[in-house]
Amino acid sequence: MVERQKFPMGSSSPLVLLDSVSSGYFGRKVLEDISFQIDEPAVYVVLGPNGAGKTTLFRTLAGILKPYSGKVEIGGYPSESQEARSNLDYLTHIDGIPEGMSVINALRFYANIADATEADVNRVLELLDLVELSAKRFGQLSQGQKKRVSVARIFLKEKSVYLLDEPTSNMDPKMASEIRELVLGLSKNKVILYSSHNLFEAREIGSKAIVIKKGKLALFGNISEIKTEKYTMGIRTIGTNEVPHAIGKEGEYHIFELQGPEEVPNIISQLTQKGIKIREVKEMQNPLEELFK
Amino acid sequence: MKSFVRTNFKRAISFGSIYLIVGIVMSLLMSVIFSGTAAVASATTSAEVPLLVSQLFPLMIPLFAVIGSLGGLMVFVSDRTKGVYEYLIAYGVSIYEIFWSTLAVTFGLVTVVLGVSIAGNMVISLLMGGSIQLAMIEMLLIYTIPISYASTAFMCIAGMIWSSLTVRVPGVNSPVGISTLLGIGPALVVFALSGFLGYSGDFVLLVGGATLVLAALVVVMMVVANKKMNRERLLSDA
């Protein structure tokens, strides 16, 4: 039997609890009657297609949205209480860095609100390789550097629960992978809720899944319970219409059906060996969309 | 909270620097014009003219105070748009604290405009051979200072609520543009009515009444916003 991890405050309550929660915006329900309980620290991937209610779930857990009904608790405390907030950190795809601030001042701004110290700010600058950028204005940074600053915020103070809402959305794969490694480095003995609309990304991140479908809980369990049969990708080439292994064409994309994204490098290698010039590789179909039909 | 206000005050000076400069420069320019007019008038006409002219300057300052203090509201609108409030609310900062800190920043900016304008006016007046009239000091205390703070507070709270209730609109129709008009409005009304009332007991009553009404409006709007406004109003539209 797995021993339940205690919350730092000494409570034996569930680390995260949602009990019949309905929530949304301006009276319009987006989440309806969601219930689940997290007792073990782990990475929980919150899955669902765009518009399923993932962000609403995160905002409700973070105490940003007030649930219309039901109960949300973090470590036994209501999510809107200061005790819950002080043990929880939250990151979205929105940078949330005040305009006009330098990197170091932006971190100081949040350190001040999160009760972190100047030493924490310096530690985080080093940890995320931001020392050389510290005097630069946030607006002058590249997209990748901006994302590192935004992510840096969650390293200012150690928390027990991390809510990471699509932190790698709109990022190129290399940068997304770097950010993912960074944030998942937090995961030891922590609860991390990480939202994604990409099942293959989700399988790289964690083993537990919380699946949201049209505002309702569709699955709370192991990610292996989600079966998909194929992975569809498209390749746009330069100057050729004959592409081996392609099963068809959609617009300018030659379509390939694979077992998973791990087969993509092989396909690319085979095509380039045959002298085919590749302009773009794109995931054509989100397996989750199939799953939720 | 203090540190939050301090940080945002510095940002507001930077964001609204053009408005701050315009507010101060315009008031000093008026000061030069009125002091010059008073100096010429004192040499050619009766002593009542310089006295009248010296009273015009304090009547106009609230307009410049509203313009000069727009930086506070600009920081609010920017932070809302950039999603800063989403994080602040997650850290436990309330709508009330966000609104109150913006108001405090705006009051800081008003103090800067008033301080520089009034001190500058006195220096300019003395340099141009005039004197500091008791009537002007009375007018500053009775009218300029209370109306400046009340008008900018009204402008600020109206702008914050307007901004929270609407999607972002650029230009003069933006919350910052609309609320400037709202802030200048009461000062203009009092300014216009003062022409009929003159510097009398009725004028003092008018100013006192206008200040109280504005202050009451600010308090009511603040309480209503804190109690009734959904937190999702402060989330970024992104």
Please tell me about this protein's structure:
The complex is a heterodimer of chains A (about 290) and B (about 240). By secondary structure, chain A is of the alpha/beta class. Chain A is about 25% helix and about 30% strand. Chain A is built from nine helices and 14 strands. Chain A has a six-stranded mixed β-sheet, sandwiched between helices. In chain A, helix 3 (about 105-115) crosses helix 4. The two termini of chain A are about 35 Å apart. By secondary structure, chain B is mainly α. Chain B has nine helices and no strands. Chain B has helices spanning about 1-15, 15-45, 50-70, 70-80, 85-90, 95-125, 135-165, 175-195, 200-230. The longest helix of chain B has about 35 residues, at about 95-125. Chain B is elongated, with a radius of gyration of 19 Å. In chain B, about 45% of the residues are buried. The chains are: A alpha/beta (about 290), B mainly alpha (about 240). The interface of A and B includes residues 85, 95 and 153 of A.
Features:
heterodimer, A: 293 residues, alpha/beta, 9 helices, disordered N terminus, B: 238 residues, mainly alpha, elongated
Strand ordering within the main sheet of chain A? 6-7-8-3-9-10
Number of contiguous helices of chain B: 9
Overall geometric form of chain A: globular
Alpha carbon gyration radius of chain B: 19 Å
| Low-pLDDT segments, ≥5 res of chain B | none
End-to-end separation of chain B: 27 Å
Overall body shape of chain B: elongated
Which assembly state applies to the chains in this document? heterodimer
Give the biggest sheet of chain B.
none
Q: How many beta strands in the DSSP annotation of chain B? A: 0
**Secondary-structure class of chain B:** mainly alpha
Radius of gyration of chain A: 21 Å
- Overall number of strands of chain A: 14
Which percent range describes the beta-strand content of chain B? under 5%
- The succession of helices and strands of chain B, N to C, reads HHHHHHHHH
**Would you tell me the overall average pLDDT of chain B?**
83
Mean model confidence by pLDDT of chain A: 84
Percent helix among the residues of chain A? 25-40%
- Please name the two chains that share the biggest interface, counting residues whose Cβ lies under 8 Å from a Cβ on the partner chain: A-B, 29 and 26 residues
